[in-house]
Every structure is written in C-alpha cells, then in structure tokens.
C-alpha cells in the first residue's frame, strides 16, 4: 500500500508521470462513487479548497474533518481513528502538526495516506510549484531557483521536487534557519544539493525564479519578533528581483505577509506568478491522487 508523505516517495520517472497527470484536464476518475477524508489539524484556504475540488473532479466525495473532531491520542489513538476512517474512505489525507502522525497512519497500510502539510514537508505545495515552473520554462534541467528566507518544510519539499527535475537549488537565509544536516543528507541521497548563501543578492544573481514564504509559520507565533529581526535583510523587493535573470518569475506559497518577506510591488508585479501557482494546487492534487489511487497502487 503506497502513500505520499514526501516528494522522495516518488522516483524521478514517477514524478514526471504525476506531473503529466497534473497537466491532464481529464484524468481517470479514480475516486468515482468513493470518498476521501481530509483531516485538518491546521486550517488552510488553498489546501482545503484545492483538495475538495480535485476530489470532485476525480468523481469522489471529499469530507472535511477538523482535528478536534478526531482528537488524535486524546479521544482515541491515531491507529484506532485511521482504522475507522479507512473502512469508509478510499484515501485519507491529513494536514498535521507532527510528521510522525502521518508516519503512524501510513505504517498501518490500511489505505493510501497523503501529506497535506506537516512540520517536515509540504509535498503537495511542491508539486504545484514545479507545475508552475514547467508551464513557464518547460524542461527544468539546468534552470536555477533561489529560495530566500526560512529554510522550512516548504523549502525542503520544493528543493526535492525541483532538484529531482534537474534544477540548481540555491538558498539564502540566516544560519540558524537553514535546512538541517539530516535534511541535506536526505536530499543528497536523491542527487540534490542545496547551494547556501549568506546574502540574498548572491543567491538570486541570475536565477530563473525567486521563491519565498512567511517568516513565521502557524504555531510559531511566539517567535514572531525574533524572526522579524533575524530575517530583516531577506525581504524580496524590486531591487533583489532586478539581479535575477531577465525572464525570472516570483513564487510564494501564500498566505503572504505583505511588506515583510515580500513587498507589494513584487507580489502584485509582472514577475509574480502567485495566482497561477495557487490555482495549480488544485491541478497538483488532482494529478497526485489520480496517480496514487491508480497507477501508483498497480505498481505494488
């Protein structure tokens, strides 16, 4: 029983196949007359709506479940809750605080599990990111992309996806907010190296895309002021974008804190692809589910 907890759960050829299905407006109806559970310990605009529409387009019925309705390890164990839900649904997807929750769910092998976000990774976002880049540039082999700011879960998954497709991955941010050595080792096992820079201008020089995310993610609110001080030299503004390639685009997974990690001029400017990137969350969800619940299980 295959699940999708991170980008490197896919081989390079499987990633290419998933992207093909993401760009297919009429994929196989792998959820026809069946349900998919959408568990949200953390709320989200794009994740909920993209998943619900993707499930509908695949012929299925999505059911949104708040984390407190299940009460993992409080009302009942993760294992017992998943055993119950798997008797109703073809697939369980979950947006959780702790990645270990997803691992416990997948270990049971009762139905495919999909990571909608965890503290370790955001692979569904990464699929949308690379779809946006493929639409813009075609083959990503030899392209270069810079992530500026917090080396977080979004960046780890993005580095995996874009790196597996042959892109050069650069990062600029404070030393205390970079990928862990464990993450770098994991990337290395799939042939992806992150080139780290102390200054944003050096990382962005000549790249084809600049990507950033909020400095303070959900659950980190107590660190807000500390993080603002740490990242104050890493705002993406027009001056920074001017040192990128002439065909460069700007990406942000949203929601954005305007005036902090990115200026309004960049966010709403001609180089920005944030709304296409946001729309591609739906196409990414549809393509991943079409593969995972179809060909992905056939390969087992």
Search tags:
300 residues, 2 domains, four-stranded parallel β-sheet, alpha/beta, Rossmann fold
Structure, described:
By secondary structure, the protein is an alpha/beta fold. The chain has two domains: 7-122 and 281-297, Aspartate/ornithine carbamoyltransferase (Rossmann fold, 3-Layer(aba) Sandwich), CATH 3.40.50.1370; 123-278, Rossmann fold (3-Layer(aba) Sandwich). 42% of the residues lie in helices and 15% in strands. The chain has helices at residues 12-22, 45-57, 67-70, 78-85, 99-107, 123-137, 153-164, 181-189, 200-204, 224-231, 238-241, 264-267, 274-298, and strands at 35-40, 61-66, 91-95, 113-117, 144-148, 168-172, 194-197, 209-212, 249-252. Strands 7-6-5-8-9 form a five-stranded parallel sheet. Strands 2-1-3-4 form a four-stranded parallel sheet, sandwiched between helices. Strand 1 (35-40), helix 2 (45-57) and strand 2 form a beta-alpha-beta unit. Helix 1 crosses helix 13 (274-298), helix 2 (45-57) packs across helix 13 and helix 6 (123-137) packs across helix 7. The longest helix has 25 residues, at 274-298. It is globular, with a radius of gyration of 19 Å. The relative contact order is 0.17. The model has no long low-confidence stretch (mean pLDDT 97).
């Amino acid at each position: 029983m295959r699940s999708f907890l991170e980008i490197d759960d896919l081989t390079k050829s499987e990633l290419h196949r998933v992207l093909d299905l993401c760009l297919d407006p009429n994929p196989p109806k792998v959820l026809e007359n069946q349900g998919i559970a959408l568990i949200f310990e953390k709320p989200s605009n794009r994740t909920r709506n993209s998943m619900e529409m993707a499930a509908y387009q695949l012929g299925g019925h999505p059911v949104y479940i708040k984390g407190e309705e299940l009460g993992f390890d409080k009302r009942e164990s993760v294992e017992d809750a998943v055993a119950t839900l798997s008797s109703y649904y073809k697939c369980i997807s979950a947006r959780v605080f702790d990645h270990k929750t997803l691992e416990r769910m997948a270990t049971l092998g009762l139905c495919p599990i999909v990571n909608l976000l965890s503290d370790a990774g955001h692979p569904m976002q990464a699929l949308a990111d690379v779809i946006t880049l493929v639409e813009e540039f075609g083959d990503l082999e030899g392209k270069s992309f810079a992530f500026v700011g917090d080396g977080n879960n979004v960046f780890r998954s993005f580095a995996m996806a874009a790196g597996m497709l042959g892109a050069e991955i650069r990062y600029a941010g404070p030393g205390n907010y970079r990928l862990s050595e464990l993450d770098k080792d994991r990337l290395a096992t799939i042939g992806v190296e992150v080139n780290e820079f102390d200054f944003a201008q050096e990382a962005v020089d000549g790249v084809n895309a600049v990507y950033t995310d909020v400095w303070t993610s959900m659950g980190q609110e107590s660190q807000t002021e500390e993080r603002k001080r740490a990242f104050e030299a890493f705002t993406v503004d027009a001056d920074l974008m001017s040192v990128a390639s002439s065909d460069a685009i700007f990406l942000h997974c949203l929601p954005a804190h305007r005036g902090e990690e990115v200026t309004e001029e960049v966010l709403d400017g001609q180089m920005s692809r944030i709304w296409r990137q946001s729309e591609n969350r739906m196409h990414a969800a549809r393509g991943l589910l079409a593969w995972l619940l179809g060909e992905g299980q056939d390969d087992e």
